[in-house]
Design brief:
The chain has 814 residues and is an alpha+beta fold. It contains 15 helices and 29 strands. The protein is 55% helix and 19% strand. The strands form four sheets. Strands 2, 19, 20, 21, 22, 23, 24, 25, 26, 27, 28 and 29 form a twelve-stranded antiparallel sheet that branches. Strands 1, 3, 4, 5, 7, 10, 12 and 18 form an eight-stranded mixed sheet that branches. The two termini are 88 Å apart. The protein has a domain of 199 residues: Jelly Rolls (Sandwich), CATH 2.60.120.
Length: 814
């Protein structure tokens, strides 16, 4: 079944393996979790430095330790380095590489066992998935391609030293940067334990014990149970005696069998036979490594040596841009100033201690790059990006040895500034002199003074660099403290300003609130006055309407009364006329009766004349009395009407006076309200003017305070500048004293040298005189000796003068 479905199951296993490793690979998680990213600690540094103590621990047992660090060069990104240390008789369990692994053996002895998962890219392993192993020792370098399965074990002798391996992981497959997400490697037990039992049973042809037969080649079910349920071992374990024997016989246990089953791709009988040969160890292949200590150095002199290897020198580095180098500096020596035009260096100090100086290119300073000096010791890691000039120096009391990896090594050729191999020697001296703005003779003296190259003698250079580093650190610390003080002072002033602003803001808010409250009260009062005015106007309109109605009613009443009076007068007049008519009729009747009586009894006229006259007189008197009564009645009625009219007029006048008094009171109230509103408006205006006056006073106080602070800052800055000037003058005086002291020492050394030469000449002359006294040698011999001596003195004087001139060129203070 497995033979017939091999392509399907192989693809399923590969894809499942990738998915499982993305989720469950503990070593990947631990590598990503515990690997310390040094580059993230300081964003201002374009090149980085990590001490041994800053490494992150991935795994640690009594049989070994795995630590790592992620470090950046500020140019090509970050690099993942691991440091594997194995005690004797220890085993680093098999892992699957997700990236290319380039390593260097720092100490110890190890045997590597490697499997390939197949594929044409792994050209260093044959196409039949044969087992390969390499025996390595101190100084060996090698590379495992991504996709390789490997493990390693230290020497079986407990008296041997520990195995220490320095490795860097890079991804050569740029089109599929899978390792950037899933880490450097994962353990092989994750290849099996991540699958479900059904998949494993089908893949490995597992059957129950009751279904097994003697001729059946299936795997017992308890084997699979033991594999899947066993506890996960640590990354580094101790080798037992049984394990040692099996390794010595190159036999693989059942775990290796499972790995082989995963690796095998063939499904025919030839593949099976090939797998049998593989498991029997008959087709193993031993691969050779390259040892840095056994290679002839690229450069060597009394001050040290250096060697660099690329893919042209090491077949294992084929298809890789990584290179390996090692530099050994003796006591008091220096790797001359140089830069890499195409490669970045990731270096590890393997012995001793020293100083590293790295400078930024001119354009890099504008982007925040910072010149650096740092001290390194054994185990420290540092990086230098391309185009950054650098120099490595050893102390007078200890040598400095460091190895490392460089990128794009096949096209990189370091460029040195000084010595015989100086890049300046390839340039036209006139153009070079114009670049430095110095005469041509100065450049000739500068380039001709150094006869050595690459690795130079530099006594006390590391110590002086360390002193400068300490001084710079102290100066930076002082500047940082000054900046902190300024920040604290600025922060304090800012807090005071904020507190003052808050106080002013609160005062302003209170004033605004008070003004708003007053405005609100004025508005409410104005609205209340407006409402009262509207009510008054409405009441006045209503009162006017009522008064007009009353006046109209009074006018109607008066008209009605006048009409009634007129009617009454008319009726009275009619009654009077009727009475007068009746009286006239009565008088006429009486006159007629009297006439009749006169006609009837003329005779009684005379007798009755007196009676008649008397009666007429009485009638006249009665008529007069009646008329007087009527006239009195009319006068009384007229007087009553007049009195009523007068009373009505007086009532109207009193009502009018009362209304006038009310109107006057209302006018006085309105006037008082208007005057009150005017007083309130005047009060609000006065309050506003007072607030504006206070604001102007506060603004003037603030301006005065700002001017005072400005004057204080100016005085403080002047004081600091004065102190800085004094410090610079003091430093200049110290430098001048040191220079003078150095010149005195050089002058004394020169006088001592001249005195020695004088004594040598005296001895030589004494010897020549002795030879002349003895008769040995002729005049020609003495002349030749004198010429040689004079030439030697001239050469020494010329060298002495040239050295002094060179020192003046290199140090303008001299």
């Amino acid at each position: 079944m497995l033979r017939n479905s091999s392509p399907f199951w192989f693809a399923l296993l590969i894809w499942s393996f990738l998915a499982i490793n993305l989720c469950t690979s503990s070593n990947v998680i631990s590598a990503l979790k515990f690997s310390k990213d040094v580059s993230s600690s300081d964003h201002d540094r374009r090149f980085h430095f990590a001490t041994k103590e800053e490494r992150g621990t991935i795994a640690e047992t009594e049989d070994g330790v795995i630590s790592s660090v992620r470090i950046s060069d500020g140019f090509n990104g970050t690099y993942h380095l691991q440091f594997i240390t194995l005690e004797p008789n220890s085993l680093f369990l098999p892992v699957l590489l997700h990236a290319d692994m380039v390593f260097y053996v720092h100490s110890g002895f190890v045997v590597y066992f490697i499997w390939s998962l197949g594929g044409g890219s792994m050209r260093w392993i044959d196409e039949e998935n044969k087992k390969n192993h390499i025996d390595v020792e101190k100084g060996d370098i090698y590379r495992f391609p991504s996709g390789s399965v490997f493990y390693m074990r230290s020497n079986l002798e407990s008296t041997r030293e520990k195995l220490r391996v320095y490795s860097i992981f890079t991804d050569s497959n740029i089109e599929n940067p899978q390792s950037l997400y899933i880490g450097a490697y994962s353990t092989i037990n994750d290849l099996v334990r991540g699958f479900e039992n059904k998949v494993l049973q089908t893949a490995f042809n597992v059957r129950g014990s009751d279904s097994l037969s003697k001729r059946d080649s299936t795997v017992p079910e308890e084997v699979l149970d033991e594999i899947t349920k066993a506890s996960k071992p640590p990354a580094i374990v101790h080798l037992t005696t049984t394990t040692k024997d099996k390794h010595s016989e190159d036999e693989l246990d059942w775990r290796s069998g499972i790995i082989e089953s995963l690796v095998k791709r063939g499904s025919n009988s030839s593949s099976s036979s090939s797998g049998d040969d593989y498991s029997n160890g008959k087709k193993k292949k031993k691969t050779k490594t390259v040892n840095l200590f056994k290679r002839k150095p690229d450069f060597s002199n009394c001050n040290g040596w250096s060697v660099a290897l690329t893919n042209k020198d090491v077949s294992a580095l084929k298809d890789s841009d990584m290179g390996i180098f090692m530099v050994n500096l003796t006591k008091g020596s220096m790797m001359g100033p140089h830069w890499n035009p195409r490669a970045s260096e990731i270096a590890i100090v393997t012995h001793g201690q020293g100083m590293i100086t790295v400078f930024c290119p001119s354009n890099a300073n504008e982007s925040g790059c910072k010149n650096m000096r740092f001290k390194v010791k054994e185990g420290d890691v540092f990086t230098v990006p391309r185009f950054h000039p650098m120099a490595q120096m050893a102390y007078n009391n200890d040598s400095l040895v460091f190895m490392g990896f460089n990128t794009n090594a096949r096209q990189n050729h370091p460029q040195f500034l000084a010595g015989k191999s100086s890049v300046f020697r390839t340039l036209n001296k006139d153009i070079l002199a114009m670049s430095f703005n110095v005469p041509n003779t100065r450049m000739e003296q500068l380039l001709g003074s150094q006869v050595e190259s690459i690795i130079l003698e530099c006594v006390s250079c590391a110590e002086e660099e360390e002193d400068r580093m300490r001084e710079e650190e102290q100066r930076e610390r002082r500047e940082e403290e000054a900046r902190e003080r300024k920040k604290e002072e600025a922060k304090r002033r800012e807090e005071e300003e904020k507190a003052r602003e808050r106080q002013e803001e609160e005062e302003r808010k209170r004033e605004e609130e008070e003004t708003r409250r007053r405005r609100e009260e004025a508005r409410r009062e104005e609205e209340e006055a407006k409402r009262r005015e509207e009510e008054r106007q409405a009441e006045e309109a209503r009162r006017k309407e009522e008064q007009q109605r009353k006046q109209e009613e009074e006018a109607k009443r008066r008209q009605e009364e006048a009409r009634r009076e007129e009617e009454e007068a008319k009726r009275e007049e009619e009654k009077r006329q009727e009475r007068e008519r009746k009286q006239r009729e009565e008088q006429e009747r009486q006159e007629k009766e009297a006439q009749q009586q006169e006609e009837e009894a003329q005779r009684r006229r005379e007798a009755e004349e007196a009676q008649r006259r008397q009666q007429e007189e009485e009638a006249r008197r009665a008529e007069k009395a009646r008329r007087r009564q009527e006239e009195e009645a009319r006068r009384e009625e007229t007087a009553a009407r007049r009195r009523q009219k007068e009373e009505a007029r007086r009532a109207e006048e009193e009502e009018a006076q009362r209304q006038e008094r009310q109107e006057e009171a209302e006018s006085r109230r309105k006037e008082e309200e208007r005057q009150q509103r005017e007083r309130e408006i005047e009060e609000a205006k006065r309050t506003k003017e007072e607030r504006q006056q206070r604001e102007r006073e506060i603004e003037e106080a603030k301006r005065a305070e700002e001017e005072r602070q400005q004057r204080e800052r100016g005085r403080e800055e002047a004081r600091q500048e004065r102190q800085q000037t004094e410090r610079e003058e003091e430093e200049a005086r110290r430098a001048e004293v040191a220079r003078q002291q150095k010149e005195i020492e050089m002058e004394e050394a020169k006088r001592a040298e001249q005195e020695r030469q004088r004594r040598e000449r005296e001895r030589e002359e004494a010897r020549q005189e002795e030879e002349e006294r003895r008769g040995g040698g002729g005049e020609e011999t003495r002349r030749v000796l004198r010429e040689r001596e004079e030439a030697r003195q001239e050469e020494e004087e010329r060298r002495g003068g040239g050295g002094e001139e060179t020192r003046r060129v290199l140090n303008p203070r001299i």
